Write the structure tokens for this entry.
Amino acid sequence: MTLQPAPYARQAGQEWLLSCADTPAETRVQWDADELGEFPIGGHWMVAEISLAHSMEVLKRITPTRRGPVLADVSQGICWWLLPPTLGDELDDVHTITVRPRGWILRCPPVLYPVRGRVWIERPDGSGRLTNPDLLGAALGPGGGLQLPAEAFR
């Protein structure tokens, strides 16, 4: 009997996500057991936590070509937007966003299917593209951050 590779074995976004794990082999084992993988933030990306409701509005305002991966926990009503690891204080004044500190653990499912209520609503595509924090802040509307012209969202 020949063992078939797991469904995520050759998916570009999945490989990129695994490259961000401290222990990719252990993460695969967690996924195979229908568990979430652990990804410490800071080295490859930072995380902005936003309510699911606000995130749905932001998804309407930022085109897919301008946004990076977005993970949702549908049972908790929370989304995590992946941002560049060079994130500074750009989002400090945006009250609807919580920026998680370096080293905080984001527990992620595989790219292609949900695990324990978590699902990628904007999947990693393998390119390494992350959401621009100024664009994210501006997309939250008045008082949400830097105000950018409409062309910036296209």
Remarks:
- Residues 52-61 form the longest helix (10 residues).
